[in-house]
């Protein structure tokens, strides 16, 4: 799944650690999200959307079908 977590984090001026604390995960989780090695839980996706004041669809884009 593609995402814009890094771009949104940069726009909002968060470090990975600050964003992790804000949404209740580890810095490594944020790093893995940004590297697209991890798909978030629905709860985390909602927390990120709340933090960035946008919708989940603004952050996460599904991979195109094969």
Describe the structure.
The protein is mainly alpha-helical and 66 residues long. The protein has a single domain (2-52), classed as lambda repressor-like DNA-binding domains (434 Repressor (Amino-terminal Domain)), CATH 1.10.260.40. Helices cover 59% and strands 6% of the residues. It has 5 helices and 2 strands. It has helices at 5-12, 16-23, 27-34, 42-52, 56-59, and strands spanning 2-3, 60-61. The chain has a two-stranded antiparallel sheet with strand order 1-2. α2 (16-23) packs across α3 (27-34). It is globular.
What top-tier CATH class fits best? Mainly Alpha
Question: How many β-strand stretches?
Answer: 2
The CATH architecture can be given as: Orthogonal Bundle
Number of separate helices: 5
Proportion of helical residues = 55-70%
Proportion in β-strands: 5-15%
Q: Cα-atom Rg, whole angstroms?
A: 11 Å
Shape: globular
Pairing-aware structural class of the strands and helices?
mainly alpha
- Distance, first to last CA: 13 Å
Strand order of the largest sheet: 1-2
Can you identify the CATH superfamily?
A: lambda repressor-like DNA-binding domains
Query: What's the CATH topology label?
Result: 434 Repressor (Amino-terminal Domain)
The averaged pLDDT comes out at 96
Indicate how many domains the architecture comprises: 1
């Amino acid at each position: 799944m593609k995402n814009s977590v890094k771009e949104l984090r940069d726009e909002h001026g968060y470090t990975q650690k600050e964003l992790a604390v804000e949404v209740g995960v580890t810095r490594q989780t944020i790093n893995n999200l940004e590297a697209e090695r991890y798909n978030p839980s629905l709860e985390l996706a909602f927390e990120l959307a709340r933090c960035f004041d946008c919708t989940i669809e603004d952050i996460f884009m599904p991979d195109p079908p094969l």
